[in-house]
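Researcher: We're teaching a course module on how sequence relates to structure. For the next exercise, students receive a sequence and then see the predicted structure as tokens, so they can try to spot secondary structure elements on their own. Here is the exercise chain.
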Amino acid sequence: MHMIQLDNVALHYRIQGDPGGKPIVFANSLGTDFRLWDGLYPLLPAGYKIVRFDLRGHGLSGTPDGDWRMQDLVEDTAQLLRALHVRDCLFVGLSIGGIIAQGLAATHPDLVRTMVLANTGARIGTPEMWQERIEAVQSGGVEALADAVMQRWFAKSYHQKRALEMAGWRNMLTRTPAEGYIGCSRAIAATDYREQTAKLTLPTLAIAGAEDGSTPPELVQETADLIAGSRYELIDDAAHLTCVEQTGSFARLLIRFMHETGHV
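Model: And here is the predicted structure for the students to work with:
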């Protein structure tokens, strides 16, 4: 286990691969921890420095008091990467991880050379929608949202063929601290990065799931369209957790992007 104390939170992280290789950083979604990327890691080429971490309020990371802004999560990430001597990375973020990627690229451009925005947007949902979810968690814990979240996270075929694995993902979700889920939900609700994302010029790959009920394909494409020169890809038979449901397809898109952008 590796923990690091930052200004306002202790983060749990893991480094794999070649410590001297080009860095690839992965940021997970709301309600998951860095095990989200377990299936993808073995499919990546050798020779890279792979960094994964649990967001504040998730996994083994700490849960600071007070209201959180998205910039707090961005600064957590920036402090972690600087402490680990990571610069010019390929940053891969899914859902809230993709929002963090946009904020990091805008405010700490030396840290991010290229990025992959998976199942995310510059603005996700409405404040009213997030407030409903927050109130549900306040009254019934994360368990109160679990069944609805599973429907948004996974395509119909995953429900039918991989029920045992889905039970594990449900456990991961429901074991997320309520304070962590609420804190990140409030941060998402208050975030609209459309203006600053439209100013980004770094190479970007946007990935959507055809059956995503959390960040529909049109939202992902709208976000990709904000960034000049970005590319948008749609993965069929996948919903919100594309890197889990269609790991091979996700890996192929990522590796091709790495070659196209010289991150090899």
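Model: If you want an answer key for the exercise: The longest helix spans residues 70-83. The chain has a mean pLDDT of 97.
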